[in-house]
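Why do we care about 3D structure at all? Because function follows from shape, and shape follows, mostly, from sequence. That is the central idea of this module. The next example makes it concrete: a single protein chain, its amino acid sequence, and then its structure expressed as tokens.
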Amino acid sequence: MSDELIGVLQELGFTAAEAKIYVALLKVSPATGYELAARSNVPRSAIYGVLKRLENQGLVNAAGREPARWVALPPADLEKVLEARFAKRLRGLKTSLESLAQPASSAITWTIQGYPSVIEEAERLIGATEKQLYGSLWNREATRLAGPIREARRRGVEIIFFSFNPLDAALGTVLSYGIDEHELEAYWPHKLILVGDQKRALLGGADQVASTRAVLTEERALVEMAVANLVLDITLLGQRRGVDTAAVVTRLTALLAPVEELAPRKKAPKKRPA
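And the structure:
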């Protein structure tokens, strides 16, 4: 236990000698420098220098002079001292880093590495979605994300999913080819697309390997590309299976430019005079 405590104290900024002496003082206090050297395994030649540093930091106090005996700051007070110290350092670090940082772009794109990290980012995106959640995913990932998805649906989030596999209809509006997941794995790797509130998208691989990579983005162009991909997949599903996907496609294309309205209409050919 003492070794673990000493390791934790070192992580919090103590030197090894300071940690050993503080822990020794908690066990027996007050104690002389001679007693502490014996109990802490800190050399007698170094003991008083270490005690002086601890005293200057307010972590130990000297009681009496002939010989001097030392007492440790109580653990509850140590917590307060460390909290104040680190809060001050973090504020200073924040100020220093901000002075170095370039102005941030209004849109952010991150690369996510590894399957567990991709799933974690998917959970965060779903949890942050307030109005609409659109996506394309396989049954395995839908099952992994079922909890956050159902919670989003309880919050009133509109959910539309496309999949080549059968998905639980309780997740939302599902449009699927119904292909067995294991059969499809012989041809394609797992992929994932999620779009939250028309503002952010997570898209990329979803294989259960360390090399899996996905992109989390708020770039408008990339978000629109993710939506356009969903529109294409759903439109092709409707054509191939004779499924009416017009209402869903209309919901999705509302995020995109109204191409049909903007495109010039073909003029009827002029009739030649008889």
